[in-house]
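Example noted here:
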Amino acid sequence: MATVFALQPVLCGKANQNHALEASFIRRAAELADKSAGFTAPHPNFGCVIARGEKVVGEGFLYAPGTKCAELQAVDAARELSNGATAYTNMEPGDCHGDQTAVSALIKAGISRVVVGLRHPLQHLRGKAIQSLRAEGLQVDILGEELQSRMTEDAIKSCLLVNAPLHYRASSRVPFSVLKYAMTLDGKIAASSGHASWISSKLSRERVFELRGRSDAIIVGGNTVRRDDPRLTARHGGGHLPIRVVMSQTLNLPEVANLWDNSEARTIVATQRGARKSFQKKLASKGVEVVEFDILNPRDVMEYCYDRGYLSILWECGGGLAAPAIAAGVIHKVFAFVAPKIIGGERAPTPVGELGMVEMSQALELIDVTFEQIGPDMLISGFLQPIPDLSPVIPSANEIPSIDPTVTAHEPNIIFFFKTWDPYGAFSNFSPHPLQMPDENGEYMTWTSIEHYYQAQKFLGVENPLARETMEKIKSAKSPEEAARMGRTIQMKHPNLVRSDWDIVKIDVMYRALKCKFSIYPHLNSMLLRTAGSVLVEASPHDLFWGGGREGEGLNYLGRLLMQLRSEFLGETCTYDEGST
């Protein structure tokens, strides 16, 4: 039963010390979790610390979806010292793959107690790991519930901050969005001529690269493309490269721009339906993805980014786009870099355009504001909306929505899966289930995930040293996302390295890998068989081959293959031809 703090306003010295120590371990778990910011979307950032008394004996953090969980890394590091120790996690472990790896790792290692910073915010995962651990006899304490004192408040806040994007995404069904801008002391983001290089210092610009590296996508408007011709790359040498998104109603954009170069990072152009079809074709020929909206606006674009699984968005747009984004309620935090410069100019642009406010009492006030000096500049940051602290309403597995609301109860259920945090996330080819597959010589090799194997097969048998080198790099990629990015990038930049029969064999390659995965993991096999009678849809809004597409226009081949595999396991004879859903 949770202790009510008001009943015990004064803590004894020993209890005070224990709370302080445990709070420090939770803060450390949050620090570890933060190392993967930008890599885990839409999965939470997880960190784990294992301690015996005051001594830390093991640590770990989730690097990316499809990699070893934080708890397993920590017990591996602690080895035999895990037995009887206490594990500290910034968030309740989440079983997103049907195998409860995080929970079983703690149990098998002999952990006697687990201290959790926050319960999992997703309804289909909330409380499950805690219940499983307690059922196995482990003591589980939760900050703010079993452990409640002034000492734990900062630790809880650190846990909220490290996964703030997940809380916003889960509660509002849009990604966490940060508006970032640099301005002079008199509030200008450029001179009257439009020239803006550079307002802020090099140190501030390096911080911006860091912010980009923590984001899944960067958004700009057409004016920024025309005026600045930005690259919008992270330039931090890490493995994560955010998607660049350009919002333009009319597609009045230059024919040549740095953002049309997809060799370093991918670009999406969001526009009004029917705008400049000829220019859309030119962009598509360069590998730029064009997404049409009936009415282009920040809210619909954010909902689309939510559907793509994005967790955190960085807006680097001008005032003309920043204002409607704020008005739409999709901006959650602001980073303002203020340089000690004055440029003047009645027509010089400002960070935020017209919001329709006429009195100071209407002004939006930031909360939890921080000030940080970066070289000569001052970074002011704060939230426009408080971090949600609530249980999100997310459909459970038996409440899967239908593609079409007119579908009757007599028609089959439709089960969607896409990212690894979904109830059926284990169906994804990005799930962390290693498999052994034969190479061209019949020798079996271990692959970290289906995606690692699938991407590498594109270059199998090609008589070119670079093809073999690419396969090795993909095989050793740290995460399925990185393997996918490597394979797609090389395929786009060096199409001559891709095997000539790839379009013919890729479905068979995927099917063989899926069959291996669902044959060697009994819990995955059971999960698949339990979906009998339901249509499986890979819900990617942008992959029109493997996924169902944004409006059901995709071929859904991954869903089809899983249904075909399910039929094979059940001894049925049906197959899913190109006319299937």
About this structure: The chain is about 35% helix and 15% strand. The CA atoms of residues 56 and 258 lie 47 Å apart. Confidence is low (pLDDT under 50) at residues 1-13, 390-411, 573-581. The first strand starts at residue 47 and ends at 52.
